[in-house]
Structure to design on (866 residues):
């Protein structure tokens, strides 16, 4: 039963957490059970059988509520260092204050206050090119150096690269994830996840212990779109999660910018379609800062010195689209051997990156 | 009365001499075969009896004992029929004992008295010491390949008996079938573009380096692999005889010229069982695909679709060049020195290649990569990413260099390798690499760089040097390995982790 020792001292947040942890509880239902009741009263209602929801759901809630120790649930969140934000909270992100589909609660690890800075979401596909990854990393770092809070989803690919870049700048980053804050997904980003939480904030609308499920990711994307002032898509396939974020952003009148890519790269098909549809291009951080209304400064673009001689010709032949050793040699009309040597040297000097036989110029 | 007739049975790909001892004595009429015969062997009693009666030859109404010596070795198959029948006639006094002396017999009998060929004639004849060997007419050419014996070919039991009695001359050996030159294999000239893949084929053929082709469907991986055997030189005499023996023992048709001179090309489907690949079986220890591919090419298309347990079975033979099959009833040793060529899609959707093109989920990719990584992929010296050719090049591009020209370079490179005391550069022993494959300072810098960045492992280093040695040999350069040899070898290398890396 809910009323156990210490129940009286529990804060309203504790009851909210318990309500949000019920199975099948979403923002709409939470709003319905909270209508005209305090969270504690709402919990009592649920434990006695809620009305206004399908009977099956009400019965399940009653069964789960009977088994839930609200105090323990609350102390689990407290000891995990998770802060619970309600819309009435002072730290509730401004971007979500007037949202058409706001989350009922937000769980935060870190300082949610960082979202008071200008926020730019840097997002994109998980199946990105090396070049895209490098662009995301550079955008993340330069925006962060300019004092912008870089928001993303901690996913593999572009998201992770943007976060990694932002951690190298000055301003704290923010992440919105689609799982409970104790469930690190993807596992490979555990370190990044930790670092973003330490330096900035990791947000989720789900209580502890919620596992990743397919439908939670588009839901998470709407929060990213809502908290950001500008959404920059670095690379996106024609369809995919990034395009969901873009839709959510457009519904909320956010500025959506796209990084131009090669017309032959499938990973840039979505972003190029956005450009064709009229999105402003984001060639670098300066473009984004202008869109934000921040002075971009007069950083002149200093082109790095291009290697001279044969190496330079090989680099030129590589071009800006992925290509193979064979293609480079064909373009130059020379034997494979010397080209192979130059490509290895260019890779060593980080002009190009190679994977599975494909070379990409990265700067 | 006792008669002893030499014959042989097959064990794996080797023949084993068997002495067929027939004893005819007074007693209750009966016929016993002793000396570990298997079922087919034991049934020879019924075939021999019917064949004798059909040929109007006498069947002794006495006690007959047939011993197959050495009696501790299991005998398989029906190949001893002819020897038993001849032995029986000799023991019964129907054939003069001295007529049979110095003759060995190989053949299965039909109930009407015809003599039929046995599988594995080449290794069986090879195991016989008698100066004369009598075989079925259709096996005469095969039997003559061994070259040490006088081969007599008979069509029926009666012909053999008449010749042994001296009533008729031995039948003329059948005319050797006209030597049809084997149809030329597919030619490299058909491959347009694909410079890197062509180079990899050449290096693989010249240096004996195992090759992994990675690419989307339709890129031409299978087409390329099928052109590899054409680049390999003809087998020399011992190799050819070994290959012929294996093919004969497996019951494969031999080329019309007799010896298997061209390197075999075997491409088992990925549904193949472990036993069919490495050899084995319960009753008869049969050579598997890897032995049939010995001295040639084993091509595994869709490597990722082969069950991991099957692929694991290839590791030991790849290392040692032989496979030992052991069963409760005995063990056999098959040669298995083959060039391994495998093809695979880069990922389940097959579209991987240019970064960002793949539609697979991360889990699907890593699952796929896990099937391919591991100890087997570690054995490949060369890995080439084959991409779909440019349509323009396919239609109007110049046709490539023909197989004959490339094969010349391969032959020359192999000759250089032989001067170092190995068959090919893949066999260069690691301790002697400094002496046999030294590197120029510039090339050393490249290697140092790759090792530092971590794209090259210690084990990979030796391989890169061997492959670079082959590249230099193909270019006709002796002396230390130049920068571009090492550079190209680094481009062509197969690092197992490269497959597993996510996009």
């Amino acid at each position: 039963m809910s009323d156990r020792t210490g129940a009286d001292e529990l804060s309203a947040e504790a009851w909210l957490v318990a309500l949000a942890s019920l199975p099948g509880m979403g923002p709409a239902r939470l709003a319905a059970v909270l209508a005209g009741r305090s969270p504690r009263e709402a919990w009592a209602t649920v434990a006695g059988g809620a009305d206004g929801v399908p009977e099956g759901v009400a019965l399940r809630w009653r069964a789960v509520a009977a088994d839930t120790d609200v105090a323990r649930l609350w102390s689990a969140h407290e000891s995990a260092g998770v802060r619970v934000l309600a819309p009435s909270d002072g730290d509730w992100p401004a971007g979500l204050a007037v949202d058409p589909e706001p989350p009922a609660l937000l769980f935060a690890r870190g300082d949610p206050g960082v979202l008071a800075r200008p926020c730019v979401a840097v997002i994109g596909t998980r199946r990105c090119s090396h070049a895209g990854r490098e662009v995301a990393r550079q955008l993340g770092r330069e925006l962060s150096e300019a004092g912008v809070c870089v928001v993303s989803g901690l996913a593999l690919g572009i998201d992770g690269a943007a976060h990694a870049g932002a951690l190298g700048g000055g301003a704290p980053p923010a992440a919105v994830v689609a799982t409970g804050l104790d469930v690190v997904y993807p596992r490979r980003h555990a370190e990044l996840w930790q670092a973003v939480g330490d330096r900035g904030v990791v947000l989720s609308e789900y209580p502890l212990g919620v596992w990743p499920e397919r439908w939670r990711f588009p839901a998470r994307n709407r929060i990213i779109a809502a908290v950001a002032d500008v959404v920059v898509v670095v690379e996106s396939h024609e369809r995919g999660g990034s395009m969901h974020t873009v839709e959510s952003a457009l519904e909320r009148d956010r500025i959506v910018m796209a990084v131009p890519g090669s017309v032959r790269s499938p990973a840039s098909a979505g972003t190029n379609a956005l450009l064709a549809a009229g999105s402003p291009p984001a060639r670098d951080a300066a473009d984004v800062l202008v869109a934000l209304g921040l002075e971009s400064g007069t950083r002149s673009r200093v082109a790095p010195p291009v290697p001279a001689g044969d190496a330079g010709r090989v680099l030129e032949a590589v071009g800006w689209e992925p290509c193979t050793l064979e293609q480079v040699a064909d373009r130059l009309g020379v034997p494979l051997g010397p080209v192979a040597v130059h490509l290895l040297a260019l890779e060593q000097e980080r002009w190009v990156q190679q994977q599975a036989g494909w070379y990409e110029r990265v700067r | 009365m006792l008669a002893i007739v030499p014959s042989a049975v097959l064990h794996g790909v080797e023949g084993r001499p068997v002495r067929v001892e027939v004893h005819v004595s007074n007693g209750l009429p009966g016929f016993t075969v002793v000396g570990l015969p298997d079922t087919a062997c034991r049934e020879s009693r019924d075939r021999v009896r019917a064949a004798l009666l059909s040929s109007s030859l006498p069947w002794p109404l006495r006690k007959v004992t047939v011993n197959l010596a050495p009696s501790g070795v299991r005998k398989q198959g029906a190949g001893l029929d002819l020897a038993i029948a001849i032995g029986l006639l000799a023991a019964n006094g129907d054939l003069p004992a001295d007529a049979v002396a110095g003759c060995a017999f190989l053949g299965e009998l039909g109930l009407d008295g015809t003599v039929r060929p046995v599988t594995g004639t080449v290794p069986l004849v090879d195991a016989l010491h008698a100066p004369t060997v009598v075989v079925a007419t259709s096996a005469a050419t095969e039997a003559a390949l061994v070259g040490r014996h006088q081969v007599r070919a008979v069509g029926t039991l009666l012909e053999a008996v008449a010749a042994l009695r001296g009533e008729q001359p031995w039948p003329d050996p059948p005319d050797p079938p006209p030597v049809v030159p084997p149809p030329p294999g597919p030619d490299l000239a058909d491959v347009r573009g694909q410079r890197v893949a062509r180079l990899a084929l050449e290096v693989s053929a010249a240096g004996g380096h195992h090759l992994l082709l990675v690419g989307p469907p339709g890129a031409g991986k299978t087409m390329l692999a099928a052109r590899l055997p054409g680049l390999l030189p003809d087998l020399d005499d011992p190799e050819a005889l070994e290959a012929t023996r294996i093919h004969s023992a497996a019951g494969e048709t031999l080329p019309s010229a007799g010896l298997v001179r061209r390197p075999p090309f075997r491409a088992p489907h990925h549904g193949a069982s472990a036993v069919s690949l490495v050899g084995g079986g319960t009753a008869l220890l049969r050579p598997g695909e890897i032995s049939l591919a010995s001295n040639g090419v084993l091509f595994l298309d869709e490597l990722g679709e082969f069950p991991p347990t099957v692929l694991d079975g290839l590791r030991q033979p790849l290392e040692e060049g032989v496979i030992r099959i052991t069963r409760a009833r005995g063990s056999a040793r098959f040669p298995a020195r083959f060039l391994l060529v495998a093809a695979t899609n880069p990922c389940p959707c097959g579209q991987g290649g240019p970064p960002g093109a793949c539609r697979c989920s991360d889990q699907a990719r890593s699952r796929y990569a896990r099937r391919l990584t591991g100890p087997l992929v570690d054995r490949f010296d060369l890995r080439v990413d084959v991409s779909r050719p440019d349509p323009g090049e396919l239609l109007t591009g110049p046709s490539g260099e023909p197989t004959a020209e490339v094969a010349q370079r391969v032959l020359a490179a192999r000759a250089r390798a032989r001067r170092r005391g190995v068959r090919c550069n893949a066999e260069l022993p690691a301790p002697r690499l400094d002496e046999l494959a030294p590197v120029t300072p510039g090339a050393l810098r490249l290697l140092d760089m790759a090792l530092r960045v971590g794209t090259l492992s210690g084990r990979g280093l030796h391989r890169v040097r061997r492959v670079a040695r082959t590249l230099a040999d193909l270019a006709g350069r002796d002396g230390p390995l130049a920068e571009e040899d090492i550079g190209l070898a680094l481009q062509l290398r197969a690092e197992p982790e490269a497959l597993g890396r996510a996009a």
